[in-house]
């Protein structure tokens, strides 16, 4: 681990990144260029003290997940991310793994989307980053680890909670779409990849998945329109626009509603409600 080079690399990349580049408000007049240390720590979901010690050459060797979070917070490219890992004495992640690093180009667009739900997902259905409104609409995906990071895994193995976000009439169609998208990813990544591990686990534990897998349906396209069910606001009709990386391993999804519609009013209300839940009135 090269502590001096790591500290210099972090400091220089922090100083050239503006708050607006990371979806943060500019705020009051700044004494220093770029982001503050506490802002990087916030974006990376770590303590300010931990990040500060890294920049001061005093911190312990960062783990691979910690480095991934820092790379995302600093909006590093793949090459810069790999260099960061090497400075910290860690092996860079496999670039064929779509869940290891969010594409910088997608993040630049994502950071400018604050007034409508937006999220970036991998081709395995893993939510890599989501804004405040996407959390309010779809739930906080950062709580999941391992195979549960994949929506398709949760869809078939935890249907009692995962399918509540969709109207009952749409669930069979969504099941087929989930399996078809996973088969496309499996064909690209191979049987020995994380896609292969995901398929094996689903085949073992979900007869419903196994039946759909045998159909050999393949599709990558996202629906242009869908209905989502919020536990407090109810059904919301949204249009879904997607922007893919060149290799289609990641996609930015933007959910919008036509102006002056009931759905638009519900999305606006979503910004007020956030992740609150309302208790039923006492009888």
Kindly report how far apart the N and C termini lie. Answer: 63 Å
- Mean pLDDT over the residues: 87
Proportion of residues in helical segments? 40-55%
CATH architecture of the largest domain: 2-Layer Sandwich
Please compute the radius of gyration using only Cα atoms. Answer: 20 Å
Please state how the strands of the largest beta sheet are arranged side by side: 2-1-5-4-3
Kindly report the CATH topology of the largest domain: Beta-Lactamase
Helix and strand sequence: HHHHHHEEHHHHHHEEEH
Strand content: 5-15%
Domains (count): 2
Write down how many β-strands occur, each being a DSSP E stretch of 2 or more residues: 5
Specify the biggest β-sheet. Answer: 5 strands, antiparallel
Structural class: alpha+beta
User: So what's the CATH class of the largest domain?
Assistant: Alpha Beta
Word description of this protein:
The chain is α+β, with helices and mostly antiparallel strands. It has 2 domains: 3-87, 434 Repressor (Amino-terminal Domain); 104-273, 2-Layer Sandwich (Beta-Lactamase), CATH 3.30.450.180. Helices cover 44% and strands 12% of the residues. The chain has helices spanning 3-16, 37-44, 48-55, 64-73, 78-87, 104-110, 132-138, 151-157, 159-162, 171-189, 194-205, 207-213, 262-273; strands at 118-122, 127-130, 225-230, 234-244, 250-256. It has a 5-stranded antiparallel sheet with strand order 2-1-5-4-3. A hairpin with a 4-residue loop joins β1 (118-122) and β2 (127-130). α2 packs across α3, α7 packs across α13 (262-273) and α11 packs across α12 (207-213). The longest helix is centred in the middle third of the chain and has 19 residues, at 171-189. Mean pLDDT is 87; it is low at 278-283.
């Amino acid at each position: 681990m090269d502590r001096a080079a790591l500290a210099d690399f972090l400091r220089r990349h922090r100083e050239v990144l503006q708050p607006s580049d990371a979806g943060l408000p500019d705020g009051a007049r700044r004494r220093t260029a770029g982001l503050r240390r506490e802002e990087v720590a916030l974006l990376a979901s770590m303590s300010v003290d931990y990040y500060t010690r890294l920049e001061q050459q005093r911190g312990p060797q960062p783990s691979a997940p910690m480095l991934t979070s820092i790379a995302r917070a600093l909006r590093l490219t793949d090459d810069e991310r790999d260099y960061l890992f090497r400075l910290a004495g860690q092996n860079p992640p496999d670039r064929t793994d779509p869940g290891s690093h969010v594409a910088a180009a997608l993040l630049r667009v994502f950071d400018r989307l604050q007034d409508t739900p937006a999220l970036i997902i991998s081709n395995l259905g893993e939510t890599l980053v989501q804004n405040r409104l996407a959390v309010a609409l779809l739930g906080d995906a950062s709580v999941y680890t391992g195979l549960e990071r994949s929506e398709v895994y949760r869809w078939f193995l935890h249907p009692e909670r995962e399918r509540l976000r969709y109207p009952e009439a749409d669930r069979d169609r969504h099941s087929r779409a989930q399996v078809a998208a996973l088969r496309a990813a499996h064909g690209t990544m191979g049987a020995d990849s994380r896609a292969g591990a995901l398929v094996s686990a689903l085949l073992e534990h979900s007869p419903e998945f196994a039946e759909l897998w045998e159909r050999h349906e393949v599709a990558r396209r996202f629906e242009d329109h869908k209905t989502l069910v919020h536990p407090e606001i109810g059904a919301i009709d949204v249009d879904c626009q997607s922007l893919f990386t060149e290799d289609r391993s990641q996609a930015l999804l933007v959910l919008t509603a036509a102006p002056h519609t009931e759905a638009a009013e519900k999305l606006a209300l979503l910004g007020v409600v956030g992740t609150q839940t309302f208790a039923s009135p006492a009888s």
